[in-house]
């Protein structure tokens, strides 16, 4: 062990963990996180109220849409009413001129068109502005919630949520809010007009509008409730399945599972089609029911008008105008009735979107705390499980990572090595124990500071469908070309990039499909070098590399660590990788079972030879760990 290098002080502990203050709710918060396809149950009116609260910044446009809509419907009804008036006048006096009435009707028709256009323009302006706003809020919420929000959950379901679910909300914003306002205001205007002819007509109109605009939508919505909710979940599950199938196309062909996959796809699409058919049927039944109810009320009005005329309560003009106005007044309320059929689908989408927006992050964003400079990290008695009901992944783990040290974590698959790194990144909070950076509980460190001083290279490097340069710059957007190249040389990827047709401006394909696993891994490392964080957390940084690339990267790491005194925690199964470490921690059963220094002569400046590796021990640090253990 290099005397100038700090030695990690890591111990395996018994089960003497102390509950950490405030940790009890962290797991609750984690489980409150959104799971696509399993939105938290919220009542329809609550969902509508919450969706409405999003519209507040654009309420002026919405009010204008409703105003234009009311005027438009009044203009439309007035065409019939004016016609009825003209007919009544012509009936009373065949010589009476009709030109004024015809001109008025033409003007009303043109006005109706203009008003309708204005109403639709406002509605769609509001709807599409809101969809953009909601998408940005959903991305913001997912970013705040961190990896815990999406880890282990269906990517396809998220895609379905971000695309089709949000798209469906257009129905709510463009075709629900203002139609409801229009129906209410227009209904009042129509009732006042009918009441001015005969109060009994107004009473019948109130009953008719309530039945068609309020009772029927509820009945129709109830009929389509289960289908509407099922469709949204099934869309998400279908999207997940298709995405999975595309990713596993190679395996499917290799193991000849194409037919099986097709059958499963067929079964899923049949389920979806059945739910859609059920929804369509309930919508069709709803439309039929609405037409019947309207016809019944029309007949009732006809009877009432005839009765009033024969009783001398109204003249021909009044009777005709009342009947034509009433028959032509169902447009706004019947629009509400047809909404009932699609509303459940829309509300189910709204519920899923709101579940993302309202989910509490597993690790809340911290701001406003004193900035931190890195001088080591540690874990004290950490116990952690991903879900409250599952057995903990980590049990009472304590470790210390001194500044400038290289710590390797090794051990069998699934014992919690990567989880340890994720807790150091604060992707999750432990249920018990404390994770600290520079002696401070990381829950008390600004999230931005934490991201500045730490860089995490996961087992799989995620690349965007963009250029190599853009993919690297996410680690440091203002990096110069020189910095970019230096980081890539350190990660031993510069020459590979230069051999691509457009060098750093070459496209990497969707999810980095055009690169090998080893190339992606080296790009991930280049990002971490470029980021320049004090603490590098590397999860299997060499798992996809050949011996030559591994040696070159380890040399880079060692040189970088010598030069910049970076602190490194790396997880690896490879003795050839762990031997560059000052300390090797061996984990098993969610605990550290060995914490040992590297073999004599294996580390330190003196041992950093031409290859930059700190040990030439053939079995590496694992052998050392076992030997000492
Ligand atoms: N997001 C998650 N949700 C639930 N369980 C998880 C999640 N991530 C990991 N696990 C579980 O936690 C346990 C530890 O996983 P972890 O990835 O830390 O193991 P590991 O030691 O790094 O394994 P490997 O060497 O195979 O990478 C495993 O049983 C794994 O199934």
TrEMBL record:
Extent of Polar residues compositional bias: 1-18, 25-41
Any Pfam family hit: ABC_tran
Cell compartment(s), UniProt: Cell membrane
Gene3D superfamilies: ABC transporter type 1, transmembrane domain, P-loop containing nucleotide triphosphate hydrolases
Membrane topology type: Multi-pass membrane protein
Domain ABC transmembrane type-1: 67-345
Alphabetized UniProt keyword annotations: ATP-binding, Cell membrane, Membrane, Nucleotide-binding, Transmembrane, Transmembrane helix, Transport
TM region(s), chain numbering: 51-75, 95-115, 171-195, 201-221, 288-310, 316-337
Any single GO BP term: glutathione transmembrane transport
GO CC term, one of those recorded: plasma membrane
Main location (coarse class): membrane
GO terms for MF: ABC-type oligopeptide transporter activity; ATP binding; ATP hydrolysis activity
Matching InterPro entries: AAA+_ATPase, ABC1_TM_dom, ABC1_TM_sf, ABC_CydC/D, ABC_transporter-like_ATP-bd, ABC_transporter-like_CS, P-loop_NTPase, Type_1_exporter
Matches recorded under NCBIfam families: CydC
Protein name: Thiol reductant ABC exporter CydC subunit
Organism of this sequence: Pseudoscardovia suis
């Amino acid at each position: 062990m290099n005397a100038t290098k700090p030695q990690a002080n890591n111990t395996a502990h018994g089960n003497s963990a102390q509950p950490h203050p405030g940790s009890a709710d962290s797991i609750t918060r984690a489980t409150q996180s959104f799971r696509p396809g399993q939105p938290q149950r919220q009542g329809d009116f609550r969902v509508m109220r919450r969706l409405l609260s999003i519209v507040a910044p654009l309420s002026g446009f919405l009010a204008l849409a409703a105003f234009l809509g009311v005027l438009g419907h009044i203009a439309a009804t007035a065409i019939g009413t004016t016609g009825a008036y003209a007919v009544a006048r012509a009936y009373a006096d065949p010589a009476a001129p009709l030109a004024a009435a015809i001109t008025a009707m033409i003007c009303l028709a043109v006005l109706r068109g203009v008003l309708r256009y204005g109403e639709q323009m406002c509605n769609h302006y509001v709807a599409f502005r809101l969809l953009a706003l909601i998408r940005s809020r959903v991305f913001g919420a997912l970013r705040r919630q961190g990896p815990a929000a999406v880890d282990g959950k269906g990517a396809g379901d998220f895609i379905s949520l971000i695309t089709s679910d949000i798209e469906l909300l257009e129905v709510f914003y463009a075709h629900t809010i203002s139609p409801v306002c229009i129906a209410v205001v227009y209904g009042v205007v129509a009732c006042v007009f009918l009441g001015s002819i005969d109060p009994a007509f107004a009473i019948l109109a109130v009953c008719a509008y309530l039945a068609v605009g309020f009772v029927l939508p509820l009945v129709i919505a109830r009929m389509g409730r289960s289908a509407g909710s099922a469709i949204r979940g099934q869309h998400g599950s279908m999207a997940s399945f298709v995405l999975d199938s595309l990713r596993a196309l190679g395996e499917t062909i290799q193991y000849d599972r194409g037919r099986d996959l097709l059958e499963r796809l067929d079964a899923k699409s049949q389920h979806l089609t059945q739910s859609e058919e059920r929804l369509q049927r309930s919508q069709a039944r709803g439309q039929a029911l609405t037409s019947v109810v309207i016809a019944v009320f029309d007949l009732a009005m006809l009877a009432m008008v005839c009765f009033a005329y024969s009783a001398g309560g109204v003249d021909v003009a009044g009777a005709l105008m009342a009947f034509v106005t009433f028959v032509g007044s169902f447009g706004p309320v019947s629009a509400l009735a047809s909404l009932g059929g699609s509303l459940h689908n829309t509300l189910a989408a709204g519920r899923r979107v709101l579940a993302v927006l309202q989910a509490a992050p597993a690790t809340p964003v911290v701001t406003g705390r004193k900035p931190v400079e890195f001088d080591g990290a540690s874990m004290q008695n950490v116990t952690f499980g991903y879900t409250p009901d599952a057995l903990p992944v980590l049990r009472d783990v304590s470790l210390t990572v001194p500044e400038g040290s290289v710590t390797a974590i090794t051990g069998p698959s699934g014992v919690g090595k990567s989880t340890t790194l994720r807790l150091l990144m604060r992707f999750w909070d432990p249920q018990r124990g404390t994770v600290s950076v520079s002696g401070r509980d990381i829950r008390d460190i600004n999230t931005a500071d934490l991201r500045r001083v730490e860089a995490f290279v996961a087992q799989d490097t995620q690349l965007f469908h963009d250029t190599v340069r853009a993919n690297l710059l996410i680690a440091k957007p203002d990096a110069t070309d020189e910095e970019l190249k230096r980081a890539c040389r350190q990660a031993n990827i510069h020459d590979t990039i230069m051999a691509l047709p457009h060098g750093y401006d070459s496209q990497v394909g969707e999810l980095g499909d055009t690169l090998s696993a080893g190339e992606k891994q080296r790009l991930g490392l280049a990002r971490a070098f470029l980021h320049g964080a004090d603490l590098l957390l590397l999860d299997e940084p060499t798992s996809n590399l050949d011996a030559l690339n591994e040696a070159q990267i380890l040399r880079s790491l060692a040189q970088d660590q010598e030069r910049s005194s970076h602190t490194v925690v790396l997880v690896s199964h490879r003795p050839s990788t762990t031997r560059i470490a000052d300390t090797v921690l061996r984990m098993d059963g969610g605990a550290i079972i060995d914490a040992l220094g590297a073999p004599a002569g294996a580390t330190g400046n003196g041992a950093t030879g031409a290859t930059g590796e700190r040990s030439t021990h053939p079995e590496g640090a694992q052998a050392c760990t076992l030997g000492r253990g």
